[in-house]
Amino acid sequence: MLNFTKINVFSIYLIFFLIAVFSILNFQSKDNVLIDKKVNLGLDLQGGSYLLLEINSDSLIEEKIQSKVIPIKKLFKENNLDYSDFKIKKKSFTLKIGDIEKFELIFLSKKDNLVNPYIDNYRSFELDYKQLGNNEIEIFFSKFGLLTINNAALKQSIEIVRRRIDDVGTKEPTILQRGEKRILVELPGLKDPERIKKLLGKTAQLNFRLVTENLEFGVDNLTSETGEVLKISKRIVMSGENLIDAQPSIQNKQNEPTVSFTLDRLGAQKFGRATTDNVGKRLAIVLDGKIISAPNINEPITSGKGVISGNFTFQEATDLALLLRSGALPTPLVVVEERTVGPDLGEDSIKSGITSLIVGFTLVIFFMFYKYRVFGLIANTALIANLLMLVGVLTILEATLTLPGIAGIILTVGMAVDANVLIFERIKEELKTEKSIIHAFDTGYTKAKITVLDANITTLIAAIILFAFGSGPVKGFAITLGIGIITTLFTAYFLARHLTSMIVLRNKNKEIKI
Amino acid sequence: MIKNINFVSKFRRANLVSVIIFVLSIFFISFKGLNYGIDFKGGTLIELRVENNIDASSIRESLNSMDLGDINVKKFGKEGDYLIKVEQKEKNNSNLIPEIKNKLTDYLNTDVDFRRVENVGPKVSSELLESSIIAISLALSAMLFYIWVRFEWQFSVGSIIALLHDVVITLGIFSVLSLEINLSIIAAVLTIVGYSMNDTVVIYDRIRENLSKYTKISISDISNLSINETLARTIITSVTTLLALVSIYILGGEILRGFSFAMILGVIIGTYSSIFVATPILKFFKVSYKTLEKEEEKIVP
């Protein structure tokens, strides 16, 4: 174990150097970037906001099931299938059917089934049914049908969340899907997430609907901005989908902040027709079920451009324009978890983390020197090398360093010497019985090897499980702990062993004490 | 410097103490319960900084009118730093945080700096609790499996009992002292599992080696010999680890205090359990060199 070929020695130091050199990258100034790699600071260290959003697809599913009503009725009619007692419930509908076998045949046909499409990747139909009574059945979305709806809604929501956040202009946001219904948003450097939370909390479904006495399409009684209750037709003249741009603007007359919008061609046509036909009537602008304003249509608007006013402050006008530009969310988003750390607390955490690292490190180094003298120095050299390599690997991986991550490094410092302690203690024992010093060192290393491996693998298992199940900061801890174990094994078994062999071989005729 | 301390003679007394503390811990955990933080209970946590002359009671007073349910205000580290915890209310108020901030600024008539805000919904908190329990169980089973593969089943049972001993007693102490259990405490518990295992493995390794070296000696004497042979290492490693941990505990700031305290407890209990819990179990199972031989026969039929 003490013999190293030149190639061995060369590769050990080469590996050490190649990895450790990356740790230096963290200290270079921004301008002189050769290789742009750095350890990222976690939100708890640099300050920022972590938000976990969840889509609430209940209303979407209700909407989707209702949109199935007409096609299904049509399908039954085309196939001469008699049914009765058709009832629409929240997320399903029930009906009575005479010929269930025929219904199954039509309902579960894989060929060109537009009403109940077969989803190939899930091997399942979009809709499912169960028999309630003798002839009564209930039709609802299958498990995979729901999954498909949720998935589409989630993908679309992520896109819109990204647009809204980019529009606000925060630096380097992270926006990721988490599971089936959640979106993770990380906003480094953001001190006050309230504005973003507000922007993400609005679905921003914009509708233009006429104020009417005509009850043909049904009406909603909504309260306008001035407090009067208006009857608003359920028929949507035009919706936010047709918007291509929206910008905050100032109306010259009263210096009032407003939002100017531009419509696409289809929208301009629809809007033009509606305003031409209804001159003199009032058009309500409804956002998420609330009236923003309900101005009079004075003249037809055919240019595809318009202005929304509604007693906004300039900030409100800016935010509304942003929401309209980014499009509507398919479902409301709820913040289910939030963690925000102010930048000054982050700085304090870095300071106290580094201080405790230096103090812990120094204490361990003195203790090891006191215990093992020359060999203590070897263990300490290995420890320093270990730290450099640990930071080097973190840099190569561009890992995220969190406060618990720093604790993981400090813990590694405390536990890393264990490998060398195990080896040295073993050698001590061997020196008692073994005449040849070289032989004693050799067997010491060989015999300690299994123990060192066993002992470290158990900690590694703990670290891997922490990484798999931990969230955020805890993951950071698992990363440094896990990588720390691997660099510890390398430095103890290659670097420290080589240093030990140099000392032993040089002094092989003298007495060596550990 | 191999010492010769008769550990085995102290096994009985130590085991009695362990059993009593273990039972007491379970008693406290089940009846007094654990003080779950917002990570597991849901709710809102705010770390704030105000001018020095403001005390916790005036912060509590200013929030009383807001009907927030159970409010907990306590000092957090430096003068003027406080931690507010608000229990999870049924209705989800997305404006809660700015409202609290305005209220405090008005009532205290001073600048209030929110340094950290955490808000965990009831669904997420129960998921976090669930995944933490899964993580700890998984870690224990992974260790059990690893030791079973590397050693024999008696060793694996011994090490798991020692691990349970450490985890339960650490949580018991947290229950007695009403210390908060949050995600970082779970991380600490998992690290304790790793550390305690590490310590146990070193002694087990030596016992296995000595069993095949001295076939005539009884397991008691083998245990004693092995513990003594590895004692220096056990102590030195515990000392260096504790040095690092104590430095985090004292200098690492408030956020890491609970974590490092749990780890310090765990290292002490884990070191103790490797000697006084894990080893006696081998004696209980009457492990001998034959146990090792049997295993080998099984592998090579």
What class do helices, strands and sheet pairing of chain A give?
A: alpha+beta
Instruction: Give the overall shape of chain B.
Output: elongated
Largest interface: A-B, 73 and 71 residues
Strand order of the largest sheet of chain B: 3-4-2-5
Under the CATH scheme, which architecture of the largest domain in chain A would be assigned? Up-down Bundle
Q: Architecture of the largest domain in chain B, CATH level 2?
A: Up-down Bundle
Query: What level of helicity do the residues of chain B show?
Result: 55-70%
CATH class of the largest domain in chain B, please?
A: Mainly Alpha
Task: Tag the structure with descriptive keywords.
A: 514 residues, alpha+beta, Gyrase A, domain 2, four-stranded antiparallel beta sheet, 13 helices, elongated, B: 301 residues, 2 domains, two-stranded parallel ribbon, 10% strand
Can you describe this structure?
The complex is a heterodimer of chains A (514) and B (301). Chain A has three domains: 206 residues, Up-down Bundle (Multidrug efflux transporter AcrB transmembrane fold); 88 residues; 130 residues, Gyrase A, domain 2 (2-Layer Sandwich), CATH 3.30.1360.200. In chain A, the strands form seven sheets. Chain A has a four-stranded antiparallel sheet. In chain A, strands 3-4-8-7 form a four-stranded antiparallel sheet. Chain A is elongated, with a radius of gyration of 35 Å. Helices cover 51% and strands 21% of the residues of chain A. With 514 residues, chain A is of the alpha+beta class. Chain A has 13 helices and 21 strands. In chain B, 68% of the residues lie in helices and 10% in strands. Chain B has 301 residues and is of the alpha+beta class. Chain B is built from ten helices and six strands; from the N terminus they run H-E-H-E-H-E-E-H-E-H-H-E-H-H-H-H. In chain B, a hairpin with a 5-residue loop joins strand 3 and strand 4. The longest helix of chain B has 33 residues. Chain B folds into two domains: 205 residues, Multidrug efflux transporter AcrB transmembrane fold, CATH 1.20.1640.10; 78 residues, 2-Layer Sandwich (Alpha-Beta Plaits), CATH 3.30.70.3400. A four-stranded antiparallel sheet of chain B has the order 3-4-2-5. Chain B has a two-stranded parallel ribbon with strand order 1-6. Chain B starts with 7 loop residues before the first helix and ends with a helix. The chains are: A alpha+beta (514), B alpha+beta (301). Chains A and B meet through helix 7, strand 20, helix 10, helix 11 and helix 12 of A and strand 5, helix 5, helix 7, helix 8 and helix 9 of B.
